[in-house]
Amino acid sequence: MAAQSDGGGWGGTGEGVGEGVFDGDTEGDCQPLESAAIHICLCCQSAVCYWGCRSNCLGNLGIGGTGVGRGNDLRETRCPPEEGLWLDCLWLILALLVFFWDVGTDLLLAADYYTRQDYLWFGLTLFLVLVPSMVVQILSFRWFIQDYSGDKGGEREKLTRRGPAEQRWIYPGTDRVRVASVWLWQITIHILQLGQVWRYIRTLYLGIQSHRMKELKEAQRRFYWAMMFEYADVNMLRLLETFLESAPQLVLQLCIMIQQNRAETLQCISSLGSLLSLSWVLASYHKLLRDSRDDQRSLSYRGALLHLLWRLFTISSRVLSLALFASLFHLYFGIFVVLHWCGMALWVVHGGTDFCMSRWEEVLFNMVVGIVYIFCWFNVKEGHTRGRMVAYYSVVLAENTLLTGLWYVYRDHADTDNYAVPALCGVYLSFAGGVLVMLLYYGLLHPSHTHPTPASTCCDELLWGNPLPPSATPTPAHLATPSHSDDVIADSCLPVFQVRSEPPTSHHFEGPLIKIDMPRKRYPAWDAHYVDRRLRRTINLLQYLTPTAAGIRYRDRSLLYELLQYESSL
Predict the structure, then answer these.
(1) 214 touches 113 (CB < 8 A)
(2) Which of 55, 227, 357, 495 has a CA-to-CA distance to 562 between 20 and 30 Å?
């Protein structure tokens, strides 16, 4: 990992590792520097340093000294909103209650099967609760190990001791008793299968603390960073668990009710909890993913509720058709699920995803998304999703029709006549209702546009990642007539680098700047600092070692010529 002394550029490491900048940066400065990367700007008709300091060229584009733009992906830590704290707390508390509802009713149902000596249903129900929970707890504890003890040789503790005395108590690792107690606590809660519960509680605590630190902006940002990281973790864990536990559990319980030709109260409550858990997690994940990215508009809670209803209806239709088919064709149901999963996973791989930091993690992620696609739509690729959604829901509708049709033909008429027609109506009405709510969501409450971009100019094209073709390059009149000016225009497309003779005297962003030597991941993927634990450790380290909050900047996709000026080991 390398540390750069200013905003001059990225290193050539090629590993996608963040570089901490400990002496500030000049990205938001509106005054041009005399010795920096020079570019002849064709929209403001002047030679200014428009890359190193965001000068009057960017001011003309409406970006100016904000220091936050897509062109260089400079991301200062967001401050939490001043309003809506009670909505955030209520959303988290309800998410925790839905989790307890889902898992608790499944355990009660397993105990009920055991008391009734239905050992097969008891074993399957308990298996679908414990195995996914253990997988999620192992992953959660692995993340804790990477976050808490990922540094080698005690660098974090050494650096912490060099920090201000008033900050040493904030960061873990300064006291052996505290370290031992933290490890003991984490081991205990993960053995008790309560890792997600603890992460929800910690997220709630960090969010409240962030709101309370309104007068201390830097402390507020630190708590907000920690809250966003923790909330992202618990949402990814919940997404994995729901499709490993809640979705199969819902199919199993519906299949049992259809086979036994009766529905117990506890079975209905458990199925409703699993269905609500699936819908809630998808809506929460989608909302948080948008909230975590400054290049996307946030999703309101009204939009999240409409998103939840959309998922509720479509998943209900899908699960009901699967349960009807599985109640008669056990072996063929397994074959169908495997074939559908393989097809969807190959579709995802063919589309190309960029969610993870390594190839094997990406393959594992694609396999998990294939499981999700058994039950519902999940967007994993940037761009217009209309065509892919139409294709997916067309396939799902055809599959639902085939599954329910086979069940209706081969069913036992004497046992199923009383609910056969309502079941078919439930499949198609739920699907139609889900599609209708989806259209309402995308038509009314979906934040369909990214943050507005300035008008199209030559610098705009470079800054926003879409280089102009040579034939479309605007040429001002005073540069077009002489032959020497033509050479100037041609040379203006190439940068001329000069190493800065002295550090800049004015700063817009005064905190450390973490430069990540990779392009920013495209939505709907998480930013790299959410999924790469090394970047998280760097951010958390800088947050507690410096008096100001850290910022993040990713490598620009179009301006790849920026020069590495200074480099030292961190």
Answers:
(1) no
(2) 357
Distance CA 468, CA 478 (A): 20
What tokens appear for 527 in the block? 């930013």
Per-residue b or e along 488-499, where b marks 16 or more CB atoms closer than 10 Å to that residue's CB: ebeebeeeeeee
Tokens of 438: 């989806």
- Phi and psi at residue 515, to the nearest 5°: -100, 125
Residue 98 near residue 276 (C-beta atoms within 8 A): yes
Q: Taking each helix axis from N to C terminus, what angle separates 301-326 and 330-351, rounded to the nearest 10 degrees?
A: 140
Write the pLDDT tens digit of every residue in 488-537: 334 434 333 333 334 444 434 456 777 787 888 888 888 888 888 888 88
In DSSP terms, which residues pair with 18 in a beta bridge? Answer: 516
Report residues of the chain scoring pLDDT below 70. Answer: 1-83, 150-174, 448-511, 549-550, 556-570
Those residues whose C-beta lies under 8 Å from the C-beta of residue 535, and which sit 6 or more positions away, are 17, 18, 514, 516, 528, 529
pTM for the whole structure: 0.73
Distance CA 19, CA 564 (A): 11
Determine how β-strand 39-41 pairs with β-strand 18-21: unpaired
**Token representation of residue 459:** 């610098």
User: How far, rounded to the nearest angstrom, does the alpha carbon of residue 128 sit from its chain's CA centroid?
Assistant: 26
A 10 A CB-CB count for 293 gives 21
